[in-house]
Specification:
The chain has 269 residues and is of the alpha/beta class. The protein is built from nine helices and ten strands. The strands form two sheets. Strands 6-7-8-3-9-10 form a six-stranded mixed beta sheet, sandwiched between helices. Strand 4 and strand 5 form a beta hairpin. Helix 5 runs parallel beside helix 7. The relative contact order is 0.18.
Length: 269
């Protein structure tokens, strides 16, 4: 998915870029207590995630690109929010901020009431590990090719710092129509099954927000419908789903919509 960033900008989001030691970081614990003390009835602080007056500027030696301009939106728990707009509208820049891998140039990004810009690198990693899941466009990029389906979900849970019971993992895979694929590796699954397995890995451990970047782009129509059905079914888990897509079916199943154009909010519902 293209965006308003200089061509030499790149980023990666990996499960493995944080460690269990981060969870024990004393500074992080102090920040958690401080954040908890200021949680108010303000929807921007009680939503799973929020952006408030966010601007993002990318600078190189020869240009300055305003990727986001004064963007505000709450992403409530148990709801699907679609982010729509043409290529270059700022969707990817917004996903970077919500995924806690970048900081805004102006404004605030809050995840579970914590201002991401105020956190140090280790604290952001710990927050990302516990509270944020990211799904890539290509289904196979979300999975390890040598692990069977059930073990994929078990590993995702452990990397979030939680040991989930096997029966809960299998219940989730039943909901996603993968109960007959528990022992199959990704290359033994169809593209739609791979992406539904990625959904299972994303929601296990109850993160605050699941960010999906064009999750239906690589799928045929029937497989895409099954993946979107999975998102709908899993809203009851209390996770905020944020789905960036050009697919009109995503907008149709979403509870909320944020439409961007040239980095500005064109429509917000």
């Amino acid at each position: 998915m293209a965006d308003n960033r200089p061509s030499d900008s790149s980023w990666e989001f990996h499960w493995g870029d944080s460690s269990f030691d981060d969870a024990a970081d004393g500074a992080r614990d102090r920040t958690v207590r401080e954040a908890a003390s200021i949680l108010l009835a303000d929807p921007a602080r009680t939503a799973a995630a929020s952006v408030v007056g966010v601007g993002k500027v990318y600078r190189t030696a020869t240009e300055e690109v305003h990727a986001l301009v004064d963007v505000s939106k709450n992403f409530p728990r148990g709801r699907i929010t679609a982010i729509a707009g043409p290529s270059g509208s700022g969707k990817s820049s917004l996903l970077r901020l919500l995924a806690c891998v970048d900081r805004p140039t102006s404004g605030s990004v809050l995840v579970e009431g914590r201002d991401v810009a105020s956190l140090r690198i280790r604290q952001r990693r710990a927050l990302r590990r516990s509270s944020v899941s990211y799904m890539f466009q290509n289904p196979i990029d979300n999975l390890l090719d040598y692990l069977p389906a059930r073990e994929q979900v078990k590993l995702a849970s452990r990397l979030r710092g939680i040991r989930t019971a096997t029966d809960e993992i299998e219940r989730l895979l039943v909901v996603l129509g993968l109960d007959h694929r528990l022992r199959h590796t990704p290359h033994q699954l169809s593209g739609g099954e791979q992406q539904r397995l990625a959904v299972a890995c994303a929601v296990i451990g109850h993160p605050a927000i699941v960010i999906a970047d064009e999750p239906t782009a690589e799928l045929d129509s029937a497989a895409a419908d099954r993946v979107l059905e999975a998102f709908r079914d899993l809203r009851a888990e209390g996770v905020a789903f944020v789905i960036s897509s050009h697919d009109p079916r995503v907008v149709e199943i979403a509870d909320h919509l944020l439409r961007l154009d040239h980095g500005r909010v064109e429509e917000s519902t």
